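USER: Note each token:
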Amino acid sequence: MSSEHMQIGEVAARTELSLRTIRHYEDADLVIPSARSQGGFRLYTEADVARLMVIRRMKPLGFTLDEMRALLDATDRLDSGEDLPPEEREELLGRIRGFEQATHKRVEDLRTQLARAEEFAATLGERLTRSTSAPGRP
């Protein structure tokens, strides 16, 4: 095995994804191992790890597998080194801008949810403090 390739266990540790999840993303054609060992083990490169990190970051924001695929296809095309026609390049950049805007919106929604959750936790804490310090309570 080349020193530039990693087995799935190392990739799982580096990405904090389970082996099952990595295999699921492979089945969904989001990431394909760059090679196989003579024994048939999946082998990954740094580029594969970077791709999995993009997927890992998109998942908690609620992006679907199809949306992940669309973003990865756009970035793959832009990073291909091909001389793209200007209209195709602009369409791909527009797609990425759309994902950037959607990401900002989803992050803001998560911040709102977090603020509400923190407010609720504080309310419960205050309730417990009042209840345990009430007269007649130990």
